[in-house]
Amino acid sequence: MTERFRADLAIIADLIPEGSRVLDLGCGNGDLLRLLSEKGCTGTGVDVDPSNVLACLRHGVNVIDLDLDTQLGEFGDDSYDFVVLSRTLQTVYKPRRVLSEMGRIAVHSLVSMPNFAHWRNRLRLLRGRMPMSKDLPFEWYDTPNLHHSSIPDLEPLFASLDMVIDRRIPLDADGHRHRAGNIGANLLASSVLFMLHAARP
Hints:
Elements: H1 7-15, E1 21-25, H2 31-37, E2 42-46, H3 50-58, E3 63-64, E4 82-86, H4 95-105, E5 108-114, H5 119-126, H6 151-160, E6 163-171, H7 185-188, E7 191-198
Parallel strand pairs: 1-2, 1-4, 2-3, 4-5
Antiparallel strand pairs: 5-7, 6-7
Helix pairs in contact: 1-2
């Protein structure tokens, strides 16, 4: 039986060239780095959840237990080709600092995040309830999400850090490319994936 990975992780893996050095921040159980190893990529995962660290080790994935908000200085300038932050930006305390460090560590970054302005989330708010969906599966009192953003909110943040958007890929609730593409993405996309590069002097 073929092992199944999250659909959005397969999209990320397709965007990263063979043989790249990859740093996966908030790597979870290491699935992305396992996918990338099939392309000859080498990489390191970072996670603070002990169960995720253990899962990575069981799968033979290199993993480090570091705090994304305070310890990314452990990585040298341009020490990787790509940095990935998948569905994690909304959980860190200082998103701007984390993104800035990503641009220092590698020229290229891939960042994905739930779209809090998705139409189902808006509808739930109109009904007087906090949003819940496949991308936001937590009750308000039990959520790891500290920051809520729409797609247009993210783009000025990237620009302020000299991170240039190369591709914007809206995703549906199952993590596949949304059929409507970028048409009405802020209303229709459940989450979004950005491919970025850091402008260098």
